[in-house]
Design goal:
mainly beta, SH3 type barrels, 5-stranded antiparallel β-sheet, 5-stranded mixed β-sheet, 10 strands, elongated, binds zinc ion
């Protein structure tokens, strides 16, 4: 089955359901209800759409969480940076991603 998209907590609204703020999770199922089924570390959890930001493609930019804290789109590792660099390399997975400083998770 094709991925139905990617989702992250809208602000802190998904945290109570187990989503780490700023991290993207795979959408397992979107069958038109008011919730999505999200894969949280291989556990499928139903979460209201109102609590989620959703993208159809896997995001390739850092999420900004409580600036200057960033969350890697590849491995969900958190790190903080000085200033507002346009591109940051992740020490955990070794990939470089751009930062969209206007996109606050
Ligand atoms: Zn990473």
């Amino acid at each position: 089955m094709a991925d139905a998209g990617w989702a992250r907590s809208r602000g802190n609204r998904g945290e109570k359901a187990g989503l780490r703020r700023g991290a993207w999770y795979r959408v397992v199922e979107d069958d038109g209800h008011s919730w999505l089924v999200i894969d949280i570390h291989h556990v499928e959890v139903r979460i209201p759409k109102d609590d989620l930001d959703v993208k159809s493609e896997r995001p390739k930019v850092w999420s900004v969480v409580h600036e200057p804290h960033l969350v890697c789109p590849g491995c969900a590792q958190r790190r903080h940076v000085a200033g507002q660099p346009k591109e940051v390399k992740c020490a955990e997975c070794g990939n470089s991603f751009t930062v969209d400083w206007a996109d606050r998770a």
